[in-house]
Design goal:
heterodimer; A: mainly alpha; MetI-like fold; about 70% helix; flat; B: alpha+beta; Dipeptide-binding Protein, domain 1; Dipeptide-binding Protein, domain 3
Amino acid sequence: MQGFLLRRAAWFVLTLWAVVTSAFFLMRAAPGGPFSAERGGDPLVQAALQARYHLDWPIWRQYLAYVGPFDWSAQGWIVGDGSRIFGGVLAGDLGPSFKYRDFSVNDVLAQSLPVSLELGLFALFFAVVVGVSAGLLCALFPRGKLDLGVRMLATAAVALPNFVLAALLILVFVFLIPLFPVAGWGDFAHLVLPAIALGTPVAAYIARLVRAGLFDALSQDFVRTAIAKGMPTRVVVLRHALRQGLLPVVSYLGPAAAGILTGSLVIEKIFFIPGTGQHFVNSALNRDYTLAMGVTILYTALVFALNTLVDVIYTLLDPRIPLEEA
Amino acid sequence: MSGLTRARRWLWTAPAALLIAGFAWALSLAGASHLPPADFTFNNNSEVSTLDPAAVTSVPEGRILRALSEGLVIRHPTDLSIQPGAAQSWEMSPDGLRWTFYLRPGMRWSNGEPLSSSDFAFSFQRLLAPQTASPFAQFLFAVAGARAYHAGSGPQGKPDWNSVGIKTPDALTLQLELESPRAYLLELLACTPLLPVNAKNLQQLQQRFPQRWMAEWQKPENLVCNGAYLLGSRRINDRIRLVKNPRYWDADSVAFRAIDALAVEHAGTALNMYLTGGCDWLDGSVPPMFVSEMLGREDFRPEQSPYLGLYFYRLNCTRPPLDDPRVRRALSMTLPRDLVTEHLLKAGQQRCTTFVPWGRLGSYESPAVPIEGLSEARRLLSEAGYGPRRPLPRLSIHYNTAESHRDIAELVSDTWRMALGVEVGLANQEWKVWLDSQNRLDYQISRSSWIADYPDASSFLGIFTSDNPNNRTGWKNERFDGLIARAESELNPTARNKLLLQAERILLEEVPAIPIYSYVAQNVINPRLGGFGNNLLNEQNPKFWYWKSDDELWQQRREQVGSIEFVDAPGPAEGLYSANALRAQGR
């Protein structure tokens, strides 16, 4: 286990470095810059702004200064007002945001990540509970009306884009039956509609995976043996079959959770939620180099961590799968 | 059962426990981030980039800043006339070169320190300092020595603040010595870049956080300001909470104790929030497909709110065939402005053929533009050497990605094809790319707009001088530059208007850009809101806002003429008035 985690950590560092490097240079290759604006194109002003954020340095030097304090010549470097801005990613400092100039990237993420995590966890909880129970029901009563109905619903939910679902939810639960606030963030009531909109496609996917996995498991020899030996059906289904049936769900949940927990641009826009999802898209549009890098690093770390967790859970669910090969 | 199996079984519960714990944590957080409701909530349309007066460029930022800070002078909420702000009076020397401002005695910053003229001098110096990199430094270029100071030079070759004509004879007097007179100096002083910042506070923070002061300065716990409101809290992409400043000199005239400025970008969401009572004022957040449906309601009267904004097409005057003014004029003559305003926009926007929107501004009136027809346009084209045998080469309209821009461009392109036989393609680009190509003159025809910084014709005409970074057409005209420069320093309004008129005539003759329509402000306002400034800049000063009582609301409704659909006016039935207003009412 320890060896596995150490190896994973090494890979993590390498992956992160590759992502940071390619993202850094890709961002700078896009036309326009963080300070191009409809007014204030005065070359003098532009030059002073570039200098304040060190955008006038050669790109390799910016890169070194961004990644870490590698730029020895910059020690004690004073730009204009006496600020030296970059501490470097290695020091855990993601730099100042170029768009939200009164905030550092660390501040921006510290404000938005808890919101996205909160919404994401709730959506995930909803998705797992609804998805697993629906899948379980289908597998236990296969080819019945219930099975057909749930499967049709699940197909529809996977196919429906979440902004359509969001609009439907708003129409029904805000305007027709005024149960929930239309948008905003703060109360528990604000959480419900966006979490359902965010979690429904995942729930549908999970239901299909559970149904298929459990269906498979139930027809296997060890299940028949267990039942023949007089084990209660409840125990056979929940402890033995479901454990195997959940394997594909677990591997799907890793990346899905990373996606849900970091927020969704569309859901955040429609329900006006101050989460991380919008920063993924807006930072790139705003050429907010540092914020774009920050969210990329965050996402990479989250995907990596969740995938590792998935691998660990795998061996717990099915001890025949060795950790080392995962 | 071996120990390992038992451990495994136990471990299996860990992820589940984690999920449940996280869920509980999520629930506990939901309660923690709850703010008590504000007296008034409005949609500020987008997240502000900064609240540093020297760096602010956008309308949403200006709205917050005007609540937090008060400049020497302010604008009247409806007629925009200049009113005393932090300065209670001022005088101009007869030659127009020396302005003296007398501050109100007894004013205090929000931290209790006295506000003095040196705070203003410091703020103006900061605006001019090259390392501040303010896009609005030129607002002070009329001041003697300011331009050199901004360029990093001075009398002895290095910047010297003492050589700049900003002086503080005493703590309540501020003197500005100008290089040449400026008729609209007071208008500039009422703009956000010239709002004061607290010198001591900023310098202390710069000392304490030499590297990250920018990320600390504008935090609610650190910001010191002098306006009617304080920064209560701030969450990116959510809201800015403004709280009444008890130390503001005119605090008794301020009605709302707390105001929320939301950053809703999605127009549909903003309208939904307004319709369900979550928001009391929207600015321009009516999705185009709902405009017709909203018109006729008492809370949406865009036709009564002309706005100093101009929608126009920049033409690249450096490349054929648009380097020929005759071609540019022919295109302008045949642009279907009426179709754009009546079929696409529908909210009361007006066709515009002049470079000053609405064709007039204060005492200035744009030259009359004769309505010229298709035959004149064709004649101009044939004069330029284009006709049925040699049609104009293919043109392209370049716009930033947005449905409304595309619709207009399609309409224009179709009309030009039918009228002049020219093929016009469309090219859309993402915002920053579009800005970049416009700046590099990498376009033929480019969608543009301009919103006045201050209510003066020079705010529009001035952008087309040769050295103005906002020109972006490659068009240069020495006579035009000369006229604008002379108008800058002319104090006599009649003579000044004459100069500006001559300058605008040149623009109309040369057509470096094609004006299309004048904006309207598309406010959706809770009818209960009082003190709202329906003005040409759509500039609001939250200090004047209050809730009308039912009596006042119905009295005003009775005075309305024509058929209007009355809508719900949520808010306190007894209204919410400032202490001064209550005193005046005898309550």
